[in-house]
């Protein structure tokens, strides 16, 4: 039998809807933060260029008013809440979907497949009920997709060896590759923003030293200080260093988990392997959600 490929479109509609809501809200949050920081620096620059001019003061005040509006929007709308909650729901749905496909606990074989399916649907409903605050952000059209797709049913019918192959290739390996990619990305970004910060601080120090030599010469020290603060705020929001370490550790753990697949030969061993794997994935997701409170 030909290998079955499983992608996000084959998972329950709730996964796709929650995933889209999370990605959209993440984009809104970071776009708002970027404009907030950019306009703060721009306001400081306008104030430097025209320190005694009424027009300059009016422009600076207008820019600060816009940044205040962005700050209020982020505080009231809380796109970061939808981002984190949507990610938590999506990953929870993905976990139980793979458990169901692999016939892993609590979806082991039963005389009637409909009994196991009803248990799965009940668990989906529980996940949704526990995250009702996300309901206004879910896309109804996507969420109405069949919660148990034909691909999911096909995978569940496969013998142990073929099911294991699907799980290792399309769940474990994909997850490891995603973590490695994200780890490398965050490492690069952390280094780039570090050097931007170094350049800004160095330029500010040189300007201050030059001001000692010639106090009458006006230099944009305050603009650079604002820009340096903006960079620090951005780094704290993106958490590149923290994510680099967390994703690298998760990738190593998954590679070790993948090695354990060679000892899987029957239904019980497959169920235990999947349970252990999904528990490891869930630990990272739980830590991710916990970062919201940092």
Automatic annotation (TrEMBL):
Signal peptide (UniProt feature, chain positions): none
Taxonomy, superkingdom: Bacteria
Keywords of the record: Membrane, Transmembrane, Transmembrane helix
Pfam families: SLATT_1, SLATT_3
Record bears the keyword Transmembrane helix: yes
Transmembrane segments: 28-48, 54-74, 193-211, 217-235
Start and end residues of each SMODS and SLOG-associating 2TM effector domain: 12-163, 167-288
Keyword check for Isomerase: no
Name the record gives this protein: DUF4231 domain-containing protein
């Amino acid at each position: 039998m030909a290998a079955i490929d499983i992608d996000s479109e084959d998972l329950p509609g709730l996964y796709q809807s929650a995933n889209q809501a999370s990605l959209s809200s993440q984009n809104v949050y970071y776009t708002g933060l970027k404009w907030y920081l950019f306009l703060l620096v721009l306001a400081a620059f306008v104030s430097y260029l025209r320190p005694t001019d009424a027009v300059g003061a009016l422009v600076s005040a207008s820019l600060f008013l816009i940044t205040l509006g962005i700050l209020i929007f982020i505080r009231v709308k809380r796109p970061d809440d939808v981002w984190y909650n949507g990610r938590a729901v999506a990953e929870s749905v993905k976990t139980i979907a793979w458990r169901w496909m692999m016939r892993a606990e609590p979806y082991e074989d039963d005389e009637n497949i409909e009994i196991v399916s009803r248990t799965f649907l009940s668990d989906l409903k529980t996940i949704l009920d526990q995250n009702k605050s996300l309901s206004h952000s879910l896309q109804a059209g996507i969420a109405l997709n069949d919660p148990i797709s034909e691909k999911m049913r096909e995978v569940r019918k496969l013998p142990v060896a073929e099911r294991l192959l699907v799980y290792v290739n399309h769940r474990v390996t994909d997850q490891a590759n995603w973590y490695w990619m994200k780890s490398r990305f965050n490492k690069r970004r952390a280094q780039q923003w570090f050097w931007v910060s170094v350049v800004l601080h160095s330029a500010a120090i040189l300007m201050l030293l030059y001001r000692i030599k010639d106090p009458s010469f006006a230099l944009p020290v305050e603009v650079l200080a604002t820009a340096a603060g903006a960079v620090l705020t951005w780094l704290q929001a993106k958490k590149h260093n923290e994510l680099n370490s967390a994703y690298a550790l998760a990738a190593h753990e998954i590679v070790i988990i993948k090695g354990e697949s060679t000892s899987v030969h029957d239904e019980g061993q497959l169920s235990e392997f999947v349970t252990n794997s999904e528990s490891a994935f869930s630990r990272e997701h739980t830590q991710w959600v916990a970062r919201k409170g940092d």
